[in-house]
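Much of what follows relies on a compact textual record of a protein's fold. Here is one such record, which you should read through line by line:
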Amino acid sequence: MRVGKLYAMVCLCFVAALPATAGIWVSSPGRASVSQSGTATATSPVHFVALASSPACSKGVSQIAIYTTSNSPAYSAKRSILDTSLALDAGTYNVAVQESDNCGWSSKANIQLTVTGSGSGNPPPNAMSFSNLQNQKGWSGYALLPPSWGICSSCTSAGPLLKWSWTQNISSPSMSGVSTKSGYGGGTYQWGDVLWNNHLIGSFSSQGLADTKHTLNPTLHNFTYDVYFWVKDASVSQAMEFDINQFTGGKSYIWGHECRIAGGHEWDIYDDVNHKWMATGVPCDPISGAWNHLILNVQRTSSNQLLFKTITLNGKTATINHTEPPTSTSWNGVTINYQLDGNRYGTPYTVYLDKLTFTMQ
């Protein structure tokens, strides 16, 4: 494995001043350590750089975590060097950057952080944006069973073929105080999937946007799916799927994004014409026991092609820039999907969603 130049530079920055005692040293945003709190002002996404040391523990540092609230970490890394960027809303945060070692000890550095706004990525003035969608009405759940993975019309969330749950207004773990608990509950089927869907524009719109005259939907070309998710043990998930769907002008635009976890730790995108997933080569390694931040950007081009633009997970952006043709449809509207896939054992697992924002322009 090649060591990145950025991490090498981070190490050099601390070599001269690194004490022989255990601790955490933050160089961005601002400067802070166990013995000295710091203050900083930054725009979002906020760049965090830190180094941890634990000489008294022969097993070394186990992880560094960033806490923006007193609940679950907003980000954590199982290494002694941290370099990442977090998207944070404007406001003041009492941030704690904490190191833990493999002997059971921990220490933290505190920073009073003021986020003044976003340096990039703010929705344009004429964009429509829906916030905290995970806690709004309109979500419907369905079981998708092998071998065809079509919707099971006879299945119910109580099982027995496949069980699932959708519980809103969860206060912990939560970033906003109103997260939603989505449960893949197992059942008699292995490899089963659970799909949740929300109609934003068109018939059955959860936002009151029926658009019966089709004056809104055809004008929309750019879409952003922005969500935080928390899972205790990501390894038991075969995959997590996040989709953006537009149906307009007799064409169906399905921007499917699948994070294969047990299935191979890679992002796939969907080829709707040939009904198959395509590997992107982009790693997908969500963090267990911490909030993961996912941002998907797609576009319906001026020539009416699907453009998969970027995938950002925990501050790391991968540029996809892949186009696909649409398929045919008679429906008009915009929907979003969220899906949990089961592994070969049908192992139950739970994922919490928070701050789900969908923007379209």
In short: The chain has two domains: 5-118, 128-360. Residues 1-21 have pLDDT under 50 and may be disordered.
